[in-house]
Write a structure and sequence with these properties.
The chain is of the alpha/beta class and 328 residues long. The chain contains 11 helices and 13 strands. Strands 3, 4, 5, 6, 7, 8, 9, 10, 11, 12 and 13 form an 11-stranded mixed β-sheet that branches. Helix 1 packs across helix 2 (24-31) and helix 1 (9-21) packs across helix 4. The longest helix is centred in the N-terminal third of the chain and has 26 residues, at 65-90.
């Protein structure tokens, strides 16, 4: 089988979740994904198998006979993957306690990781870095292959009500898969060429942003990216689908296309924090919900390893200090 036809574990996980919950919406809730993302993984698996796997009905979804026949092998594959990871973790030596396995999305790797590394020079802590988009980082974290990760969401998480504001505890949110620490509110900006009709504005209202629906847009290539999903939902809810002409996850490429007058794009402040792009006007969005919330995800298994947990505390302190430099 060609590599392009090999399903990834997310496709298997999505199918099992539909079987357990009885619906695609239930699977999405169980996996903390959007319905569109679950559908995407199921469609990819159906393409690889060459047969329908889901029978969709008004009040739920069930697995087809072909999918039910696959289910034992799929369950065994997921169990074997989990066993492989657990075995690898058990073989860790004391020396590995000084190695922090960190995942980071590209802009965090470019802007935050150098600042974090500078703060760790006086310690024995070493970083083993994995770069990926946030959806992939989440999967790798759940598989137990990361101790900590820099990620983001398009929706701010509620803070605990019994903690004092501005403390680390007040910024933390626990789930079954990770301990999440809020780091940075990263505003989203509209990038337009200097000749654009909105180039002279400093802030853009939702009404003005809707007027841009028919223009040529640049969007990301990752199907479950929280920011791309939020922007597309903003336009689809208003009955004005986004006119996406170019897809790239490279902000330098996107801004180059904007500068050339070929399209417009939404970019986070962090992506342009090092240098203002030439030939591009960055316009703030009036609606505060257009914000990317950068978070630090900690693997609960890591917290159970006392020596590693001590280093993790020092690492978290370095991360918090690094993000303080970037308050927008």
């Amino acid at each position: 089988m060609e590599n392009s036809q090999l399903p990834d574990l997310r496709q298997f996980t999505a199918l099992v979740a539909v079987h357990k919950t009885g619906s695609i919406a239930g699977a999405a809730k169980k996996l903390h994904l959007s319905v569109a993302t679950v559908n995407y993984h199921l469609e990819k698996l159906e393409q690889a198998v060459g047969a329908p796997l889901i029978s969709r009905a008004r009040h739920g979804s069930t697995l087809t006979r072909a999918a039910l026949a696959m289910l034992p092998d799929i369950s065994a594959t997921l169990e074997n993957a989990a066993h492989t990871i657990s075995s690898a973790q058990e073989r860790k030596t004391a020396k590995s306690d000084n190695i922090i396995r960190i995942g980071a999305f590209p802009t965090a790797a470019a802007v935050l990781l150098p600042r974090i590394a500078r703060r760790l020079k006086s310690t024995d802590i070493k970083m083993q870095t994995t770069l990926a988009e946030v959806g992939t980082i989440s999967q790798i974290m759940q598989a137990g292959l990361l101790d900590i990760a820099l990620s983001y969401t398009a929706k701010a998480r509620p803070h605990p009500t019994k903690t004092k504001p501005h403390t680390t505890a007040a910024r933390q949110h626990a789930t079954a898969n990770s301990l999440t620490t809020a780091l940075l509110a990263d505003p989203l900006l509209l990038a337009v060429p200097l000749t654009h009709r909105f180039a002279k504005l400093t802030r853009l209202s939702n009404k003005q942003l809707l007027e841009c629906a028919d223009e040529s847009w640049i969007s990301g290539t990752t199907p479950d990216d929280p920011v791309d999903e939020k922007i597309m939902r903003f336009y689809s809810d208003a009955g004005k689908p986004q006119n996406i002409k170019v897809q790239t996850d490279d902000y330098a490429v996107a801004l180059g296309l904007v500068s050339a007058g070929l399209a417009i794009a939404i970019v986070p402040q962090l992506a342009v924090s090092k240098q203002k792009p030439a030939g591009v006007r960055l316009v703030s969005l009036e609606d505060p919900s257009f914000t990317r919330h950068i978070e630090l995800l900690t693997n609960p298994r890591t917290l159970q390893n006392a020596p590693l947990n001590k280093n993790l505390s020092s690492f978290t302190t370095a991360v918090l200090a690094a993000t303080k430099e970037l308050r927008f």
